[in-house]
């Protein structure tokens, strides 16, 4: 059974999808802790499911590196196999990444390498793209530059508002993340091999 730590900053819709998947006894992963950088609304999903959670606020530390060390220490206590950044709206410090990667994955609302960064949906619309989507990738020390694991495409409708497109991307993101974690747990997706091939 793959032991997951899930990191969030907001409503936790991806966390909720993983919790629901893990309720099925045939799903090969379990969430052993949920961490956040703020008092995120999504922590309620962890509480409802009886999953331990913790908050490590960057404002409580003198530097990003110190915050990252505290976050790593909190995760380490749970002896996890995979860290899932599921809406954590912060760039993880290099020391944190080097400790957990390649067993450190993220979802991104674009078809990477297109439209990296915090405003991927807005950037796709501004570029006049007719298609975007979602990527699950390994986190490396760059911003959205790690090896791609899985992708799902979403067509962009003419005149579509950013918020509407983002919601349609999220609808693809949740099952893609659940399926990717399943593949990692079952061994059909080998993170170390993918990372080595990317170098």
Automatic annotation (TrEMBL):
<comment type="similarity">
    <text>Belongs to the GART family.</text>
</comment>
<dbReference type="Pfam" id="PF00551">
    <property type="entry name" value="Formyl_trans_N"/>
</dbReference>
<dbReference type="GO" id="GO:0004644">
    <property type="term" value="F:phosphoribosylglycinamide formyltransferase activity"/>
</dbReference>
<feature type="binding site">
    <location>
        <begin position="89"/>
        <end position="92"/>
    </location>
    <ligand>
        <name>(6R)-10-formyltetrahydrofolate</name>
    </ligand>
</feature>
<protein>
    <recommendedName>
        <fullName>Phosphoribosylglycinamide formyltransferase</fullName>
        <ecNumber>2.1.2.2</ecNumber>
    </recommendedName>
</protein>
<keyword id="KW-0658">Purine biosynthesis</keyword>
<feature type="binding site">
    <location>
        <position position="106"/>
    </location>
    <ligand>
        <name>(6R)-10-formyltetrahydrofolate</name>
    </ligand>
</feature>
<dbReference type="InterPro" id="IPR004607">
    <property type="entry name" value="GART"/>
</dbReference>
<dbReference type="GO" id="GO:0006189">
    <property type="term" value="P:'de novo' IMP biosynthetic process"/>
</dbReference>
<feature type="binding site">
    <location>
        <position position="64"/>
    </location>
    <ligand>
        <name>(6R)-10-formyltetrahydrofolate</name>
    </ligand>
</feature>
<keyword id="KW-0808">Transferase</keyword>
<feature type="domain" description="Formyl transferase N-terminal">
    <location>
        <begin position="3"/>
        <end position="180"/>
    </location>
</feature>
<comment type="function">
    <text>Catalyzes the transfer of a formyl group from 10-formyltetrahydrofolate to 5-phospho-ribosyl-glycinamide (GAR), producing 5-phospho-ribosyl-N-formylglycinamide (FGAR) and tetrahydrofolate.</text>
</comment>
<dbReference type="InterPro" id="IPR002376">
    <property type="entry name" value="Formyl_transf_N"/>
</dbReference>
<feature type="active site" description="Proton donor">
    <location>
        <position position="108"/>
    </location>
</feature>
<dbReference type="GO" id="GO:0005829">
    <property type="term" value="C:cytosol"/>
</dbReference>
<comment type="pathway">
    <text>Purine metabolism; IMP biosynthesis via de novo pathway; N(2)-formyl-N(1)-(5-phospho-D-ribosyl)glycinamide from N(1)-(5-phospho-D-ribosyl)glycinamide (10-formyl THF route): step 1/1.</text>
</comment>
<dbReference type="InterPro" id="IPR036477">
    <property type="entry name" value="Formyl_transf_N_sf"/>
</dbReference>
<feature type="site" description="Raises pKa of active site His">
    <location>
        <position position="144"/>
    </location>
</feature>
<feature type="binding site">
    <location>
        <begin position="12"/>
        <end position="14"/>
    </location>
    <ligand>
        <name>N(1)-(5-phospho-beta-D-ribosyl)glycinamide</name>
    </ligand>
</feature>
């Amino acid at each position: 059974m793959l032991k997951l730590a899930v990191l969030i900053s907001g409503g936790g819709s991806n966390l909720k999808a993983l919790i629901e998947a893990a309720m099925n006894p045939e799903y090969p992963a379990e969430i052993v802790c949920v961490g956040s950088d703020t008092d995120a609304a999504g922590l309620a999903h962890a509480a409802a499911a009886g999953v331990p959670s913790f908050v490590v606020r960057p404002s409580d530390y003198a530097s990003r590196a110190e915050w990252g060390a505290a976050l790593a220490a909190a995760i380490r206590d749970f002896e996890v196999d995979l860290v899932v950044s599921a809406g954590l709206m912060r760039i993880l410090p290099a020391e944190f990444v080097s400790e957990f990667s390649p067993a450190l994955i993220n979802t991104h609302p674009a078809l990477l390498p297109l439209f990296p960064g915090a405003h991927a949906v807005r950037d796709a619309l501004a570029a006049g793209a007719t298609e975007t989507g979602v990527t699950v990738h390994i986190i490396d020390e760059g911003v959205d530059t790690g090896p791609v694991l899985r992708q799902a495409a979403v067509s962009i409708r003419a005149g579509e508002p950013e918020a509407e497109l983002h919601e349609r991307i999220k609808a693809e993101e949740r099952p893609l993340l659940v399926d990717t974690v399943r593949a990692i747990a079952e061994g059909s997706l080998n993170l170390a091999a993918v990372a080595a091939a990317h170098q």
